Each structure stands twice: as structure tokens, then as C-alpha cells.
Amino acid sequence: MDFSLSPDQQALVDTASRFARERLAPGYRAREKAGRVEREIVAEMGAMGLLGAEFPESAGGLGVDCVTSGLLLEQVARGDFNVAYVNLLVSLCGQIVAQHASTDVAAEWLKPVIAGEKLIAIALTEPSAGSDAARIRLKATGDADGYVLDGEKTSISMATQADVAVVFARTGDEAERARGISAFLVPLDQPGVTRTAFDDIGTRPVGRGSIFFDGVRVPRGMMLGTEGQGFVQVMQGFDYSRALIGLQCMAVARVSLDEAWRYIREREAFGKPIGEFQGVTFPLAEAETHYEACRALCLRTLWLKDQGLPHTAEAAMCKWWAPKLACEIIHQCLLTHGHGGYGGDYPFGQRYRDVMGLQIGDGTANIMKMVIAREMAAGRQAE
Ligand SMILES: Cc1cc2nc3c(=O)[nH]c(=O)nc-3n(C[C@H](O)[C@H](O)[C@H](O)COP(=O)(O)OP(=O)(O)OC[C@H]3O[C@@H](n4cnc5c(N)ncnc54)[C@H](O)[C@@H]3O)c2cc1C
Q1: Can you tell me which atom of ligand 1 is nearest the CA of 357?
Q2: Which atom of ligand 1 is nearest to the CA of 125?
Q3: What is the full DSSP assignment across 345-357?
Q4: What is the pLDDT of residue 381?
Q5: Which of 94, 145, 204, 244 is least enclosed by beta carbons within 10 angstroms?
């Protein structure tokens, strides 16, 4: 067992870390006000190889493993949690496109997405289908030329900014549930596509919102995989994004803890630095313990993926634990900073609001625990 980074991994992480410190962190709060991620930033990340690094060089990636891609996303999230949504969506959707699009469609779309020239979104949720995603109703009606999409997707990250989306639609009967769902890659600049933005309490630069499809034509070649298999495909992809989300959340916990340790050395009360009171340091010591365990779980889950080993239960563990733990750690670090932490001098409030969204997005804690229980009850043995 070797927990060290190779020289190549370390060099990539150092590059991402510098970029996050210099280009992302200073704009974290301004991006919340602007309500968008600047395209120049996304393009810079693409040019530096920070997006979809796990894809082969022929597709514009760096050909590294998923662990390394996760380490890069983590560094980006240390600078700006919301910008790391771009990494997440490129990895999640890129994988679906790479595995299930025709060669021509993959060649047309994967490269610009990995290069940061086009933004991609994943559109599964609907007004009446969230956790129970097999209930979706958005209809894809087939004809001689392809399909026509009609319906609404809601709660979609990057809905306001994305150029293209992986859209799940019903090609079969509702009674077929998951078996009647297909996936399509849909450019969002087409006639019949409209969007509305949500007034969210956090992740405002991500621009969550609804996308409406009103008679939108999709050529047959834009179907991802085979008809009726779309749901199965997305569920596999989520095992990957769940581990990445874990690292994304742990990144914000790390930054908050670093600030708290720094602060307790400087702030004095009762004649000494507050770091000399165990009542101040013990909650941080506990947080460090939980942080290390959770981050290790996320990295191990990505390692399992890289080895081609089962990791569905581990991915669900990352997904329910990390966002909750990150919220708890941010909360503690805010309290450690006293009244200053509650005020505008520190971004603890924004961090808390941003991270909290991922206690819901990509599946709630209850759904993750159902996944873990299902896997373990089915007799999966720990190694
Ligand atoms: C920040 C954010 C980003 C998102 N980004 C995207 C995106 O990019 N693309 C996309 O398609 N969707 C996205 N979503 C939507 C997200 O995937 C759904 O919100 C999520 O799956 C839950 O669905 P729901 O909100 O409809 O809740 P519901 O399914 O209505 O659930 C409501 C509550 O009931 C609980 N519950 C439901 N069923 C059970 C059960 N069987 N047992 C126990 N408890 C249960 C849930 O845990 C939850 O607490 C995003 C959501 C958020 C908040």
C-alpha cells in the first residue's frame, strides 16, 4: 500500500494548487454575486489540462487515472467550490459520452468540453421525479428523422450556462420505469429550448435551473447507447461523480480548517492565544480526524474504480458523508473565529450554503444509505 503521490501527480497537483490560489480563490465571493463562472476561467482550466484529465490524450485529456483527476478537482475546489462543478460535470458527462456516443458524436463534443470551450450539463431530474428518477416523463417521440423531445428538466446545475446536455428521456411506457428511458446528447442552442434560473441560497455561480424542451429535434445519432438503456448508464456514472463530490466537499473543509488553526495561534483571550485552550483545539482535532478518514475513503473509492473493482457502496458512502461532514466542519471553523466568523470578513457563510446543496444534488443521504444497504445486504464482502 503506497499513499504517496508520484512525481507526475505531484507536479499536476502543484500546478492546480497554484492556479486555485492565484486565479480562483480571489474571485470566490465575486462569482457568487455575478451568478456565473467566467468562460475565460473555464477555458484556462481546459488549456492547463485540469478538466477531464482522465480521458486519453486523443480526446484532449492527459490520460491519467481517476485518482489523479480527483486530486485536481480537489485543488480547484479549494480555490472555488463552485468552479469545481465544471470539473465534476466534465468527468461525469464526459464518461457517459466517451462510453456511449458514436465515434463521430464523441469526436465532435468531447474535445471542446475537455478543452473548456463548451460547458456540459446532466439533465435527469424533473418536477415530479427526483430520488425516484425512474419516474421521469420527458418524452422522446421517435420518427423517421430521429426524436422529438417534449417536457421539463428541473434542478439542473449549469442550466443557465451549459452549451450541451446529457438529457434522459422516456422512449418507452411509464410502466416500464427504468427500462423505458434513453439518453441523448442535446445541444442547447436549438429552437424549442428555453431555460429559467433558480434563486438558490448557495452555488449561485453554478446557475441551477430548469430547461424546457418544446418539440426539440434530436437526430438519431445523438442517442447515447441503446434505446431503453439510458438509466442504467447514468447510474454507473454516478459512482464516479459521488467520489469526486466527496473530494470537492473535503476541499472546503480543508481550507476552513487551515484558517481555523492559523486563527487560534493569533487570537488572544484571557492573556494567551486561544489555541492554548483545549475547548478550542479539541473540536478541531476531531474535525481533522473525520476529515482524514473521509478524504481517504474518497481516494480509495477512486482507486477501486481505477482497478476496475466494485465501488458502488463506497461511492454512496462518500456522497452522503462528505457534504454533511464538510458542513459540520465549516460550522465549527466559523464558531472558532468568534463574531468575525459570523461577519463578512470570512466566507464561512457562503461555503456553508454552497456545500449544503450537495447534501441533495446527485442523490440525498437517504438514497445513498439505501444503495449501501442494498449492496451489503446482497452479500458484498469487504476486502
Ligand atoms: C445543488 C443541486 C444540484 C443539482 N444538480 C442536478 C443536476 O445537475 N442534474 C439533475 O438531473 N439533477 C440535479 N439536482 C437534483 C437532485 O439530483 C435531486 O434534487 C435529488 O435527486 C433529490 O430529488 P428531489 O429533490 O426531487 O427530492 P425527493 O425525491 O422529492 O425527496 C424528498 C425527500 O424525501 C427523501 N426520500 C425520497 N425517497 C425516499 C425513500 N425511499 N426513503 C427515504 N427517504 C426518501 C429524500 O431523501 C428527501 O429528503 C441537483 C440538486 C441540487 C440541490
Answers
A1: 1
A2: 11
A3: TS-HHHHHHHHHG
A4: 59
A5: 145
Atom of ligand 1 nearest to the CA of 203: 1
* Structural contact between residues 176 and 328, judged by C-beta atoms closer than 8 angstroms: no
Residue nearest to atom 45 of ligand 1 (CA): 366
Helix, strand and coil in the chain, % to nearest 5: 60, 15, 25
pLDDT tens for 160-212 read 999 999 999 999 988 888 889 999 999 999 999 999 999 999 999 999 999 99
Residues having CB within 6 Å of any atom of ligand 1: 121-125, 130-131, 155-157, 203, 208, 357, 360-364, 366-367
Task: Work out the pLDDT band at 379, boundaries 50, 70, 90.
Answer: confident
> Which of these, 102, 40, 15, 91, lies nearest to 302 by C-alpha position?
91
Residue indicated by cell numbers 468552479: 83
Residue type at position 30: A
- Whole-structure pTM over 0.85, yes or no? yes
The length of the chain, given as a count of residues: 383
State in Å: Cα 279 to ligand 1 middle: 37
- CA 69 – ligand 1 centroid, Å: 26
Cα separation of the two ends of the chain = 14
How far does residue 378's CA lie from ligand 1's centre (Å)? 24
